[in-house]
Design goal:
- The protein is mainly alpha-helical and about 160 residues long.
- The protein has a single domain, classed as Hypothetical protein af1432 (Orthogonal Bundle), CATH 1.10.3210.
- It contains nine helices and no strands.
- The chain has helices spanning about 5-10, 10-25, 35-50, 60-70, 75-80, 85-100, 105-115, 125-135, 150-160.
- Helix 3 runs antiparallel to helix 4 (about 60-70) and helix 3 crosses helix 8.
- The chain starts with a helix and ends with a helix.
- It binds fe (ii) ion (2 copies).
- One fe (ii) ion (FE2) binds near residues 84 and 117.
Amino acid sequence: MLHRVDAIISDIRYGEYLRRNADYEKNRRFCRHDWQHMLDVARIAYMLALESGRRQGLSKEIIYAAGLLHDIGRWREYRSGEDHAAAGARLAGPLLDRAGFSGAEKEIITAAIREHRNGGRQASSLGRLICTADDLSRPCHRCPARGECYKADRMATAGLLLY
Ligand SMILES: [Fe+2]
Ligand SMILES: [Fe+2]
């Protein structure tokens, strides 16, 4: 059913970006930016959209594409210091083209990837959705690195929304 999402997942570049993230995160004690995280964010974003009853014209494919792609630029941040949201939006463009998303859909998805770090008022509805799903996806309550994580307090508050 989600053929274009399948196309992203099977794209050789997508696998390559996930591998690059994994290479840089081999010894990382904090949250990783791996396949499981991408899938968690896509699923939670879709659940939130369904739960709120406000899909705002966002299809399941668009929400999943944004979730699965939102951190593909993380390795660029490790490598050069470039903001991973901006890098991810740029890297996502050709993947979305190859998967068959239209120019307008690509705009919506890449904007959300670019905005996923803050998701404030100025962000698009998909950008805010991915940002919230990103926070909710982290299993901070049982995290052994929690004491040293600068995000732990914010995440613990966000995590409460899950229950
Ligand atoms: Fe991110
Ligand atoms: Fe993320």
